[in-house]
Amino acid sequence: QDSSDDIEDVSLFDADDDVSRRSKKSRIRHPVASFFHLFFRVSAIIVYLLCELLTNSFIACMVTIILLLSCDFWAVKNVTGRLMVGLRWWNQVDDDGRSHWVFEARKVSAQGGKTSSEAESRIFWLGLITCPMIWVIFAFSALFSFKVKWLAVVVMGVVLQGANLYGYIRCKVGSRKNLTSMATSYLGKQFLRQ
Q1: How many C-beta neighbours within 10 Å does residue 125 have?
Q2: How does this protein lie in the membrane (predicted)?
Q3: C-alpha count within 13 angstroms, C-beta hemisphere, residue 34
Q4: What pLDDT was estimated at residue 106?
Q5: What sections of 12-117 are H helices per DSSP?
Q6: Where do the structural domains in the chain lie, given as residue ranges?
């Protein structure tokens, strides 16, 4: 099921042309949500980087990192995505037992304006895109340095944060569109433009 009717276009970085509207929309409306959107992500990365310096217990580090990643996954999926950019995704099982993924964007309000601010949108998308990239770098680093025990922790980081990234990109571009064909058409347009 898709809710693609009457949805608001939530741009990745909200690049609006109207400067007066930009200054009004640039304030952060949900500071607690914005804080926790980045807190769990950055904390997991910092713990991963400093873990071997602070303690010799791999199990304590692994549990701490996985708890931080799990809290991040839950907070981003269930709270910050809805509040900061008006997007949400979930899995729904119908009466026949079939599983359906639902990707949804906030409906347009009665005034016709957006309810999310540009600053929150930037914080949301930069955090959502940057942190999985860092975990992918950690994965290659653990793989090539033969730190196999850390590879499981890093894979958890890639999977949990990558799942949220994939879900919100599907919300943003629409669940019916094929992401590969969209990327191909975008790159084709950029090539022709040059």
Answers
A1: 21
A2: Multi-pass membrane protein
A3: 16
A4: 78
A5: 19-25, 31-54, 58-75
A6: 31-103+117-192
What is the C-alpha separation between 96 and 111, in angstroms, rounded?
A: 39
Q: For 132-186, what is each residue's pLDDT tens digit? A: 999 999 999 999 998 889 999 999 999 999 999 999 999 888 745 555 566 666 6
Dihedral sign, Cα of residue 151, residue 73, residue 130, residue 1: positive
The span from the CA of 162 to the CA of 112, in Å, is 32
Rounded Cα–Cα distance for residues 43 and 65 (Å) = 8
Within the chain, residue ranges assigned H as helices are 19-25, 31-54, 58-75, 118-144, 148-173, 179-193
CB of 62 closer than 8 Å to CB of 153: yes
Q: Which two tokens stand for residue 78?
A: 């269930």
Is it the case that residue 99 has pLDDT exceeding 70?
Answer: yes
Q: Is the pLDDT of residue 3 over 70?
A: no
Q: Residues 6 or more apart from 68 whose CB is under 8 A from it?
A: 40, 43, 44, 47
Is the pLDDT at 83 greater than 60, yes or no? yes
Contact 118, 32 (CB under 8 A): no
